[in-house]
Amino acid sequence: MNPTPSSVHIDKGLTNVSTAYFQATDAYIAGRVFPNVPVSNQTDKYFVFDKNDALREKARVRPPNSESAGGGFRLSTDSYNAEVFAWHVDLNDQVRFNADGGLNLQRSAARQCTDAILRQMESDWAATVFVTGVWNIDLDGITNFEQWSTDTSSPLVDVETQRVAILKSTGRRPNTLVLGAEVYSRLKNHPDFIERIRFVSDSVVTREIMARLLEVDRLFVAEAVAATNLEGETAAYGFMLGKHAWLGYVAPAPALEEPSSGYIFTWSEASDGSAVAVGTVTIDMPWLRTVRVESQLSWDVKITGLDLGAFFENAIS
């Protein structure tokens, strides 16, 4: 047959579709769980008022013609250290100017850099907050409670028990719950939740319904995924925050004389972005005939109230 399909068409890159596994930005929760505290210096201190002084009964009856009872309060300091995190992609002119129409290399590089920063913050938050041996209440589903992956377990009771325990020791009602993606997937099908809503018209356990049943204002599901292999090894993937859960009180916003389980201190002067919004810059390097796309952000994930959180390790099997 003449002409043939190959003689009338030369393959080229499409301009309206390509595939890439960039993580959706809303899958990263670290920048939303703890409030952000913008700071002008990389290191500094903040004041810590003694909890026992604040919660102890002190006022006394004042008889006529006598002085009032009185005293002071204890004050200490703690500190933060906002490390600078950065990642770049270099694009030389020969590559940039030779790229097909379906490629916008600078835009793709910017997404790579932004994702690298968000991924690092998520990892840092997990290593600081979502681990055993940190919080005053530290429970293991293997030894301390029945794992929620079994139908006979009692996740509602387990969370309520620790909710009351935190309230009792701090005077603050836990308002935030963080669940690993697989933990949430199991809980929404757990008999505890199914039974509670079986007579409700909406028979699906949503995040909003689960939060209401667990009496928390905010419920986060950690859906960020990471490659767990080293470069060059066989590819392997997993959820970054694992099969755990965390319950705690988080201040709605940074404030004076208010407790919070944690904050993220961001050094504004060293960050390309503001707060926890990643900023990206393009740096022209004419001596190399190269353009560098770079993202940078400076932060310190800081636990500021060990008694305001409860960690459920191995919540499911």
What do these coordinates show?
The model has no long low-confidence stretch (mean pLDDT 91). The chain has helices at residues 5-8, 30-33, 51-55, 93-96, 105-129, 155-170, 181-187, 191-197, 207-213, and strands at residues 36-39, 43-49, 75-81, 83-92, 137-140, 176-180, 218-222, 225-227, 237-239, 245-248, 262-267, 279-285, 290-303, 309-313. It is flat, with a radius of gyration of 26 Å. The protein is an alpha+beta fold. 25% of the residues lie in helices and 26% in strands. It is built from nine helices and 14 strands.
Regions with little confidence, pLDDT below 50 for 5+ residues: none
In N-to-C order, the SSE pattern is HHEEHEEHHEHEHHHEEEEEEEE
The CATH architecture comes to Alpha-Beta Complex
- Structural class by sheet pairing and helices: alpha+beta
Report the strand count.
14
**Taking Cα atoms only, what radius of gyration do you get, to the nearest Å?**
26 Å
In DSSP terms (H or I, runs of 4 or more residues), the helix count works out at 9
- In whole angstroms, the N-to-C terminal distance is 62 Å
Query: Helix amount, in percent?
Result: 10-25%
Domains (count): 1
What shape does the CA trace take?
Answer: flat
- In terms of DSSP E residues, the strand content is 25-35%
- Biggest pleated sheet: 5 strands, mixed
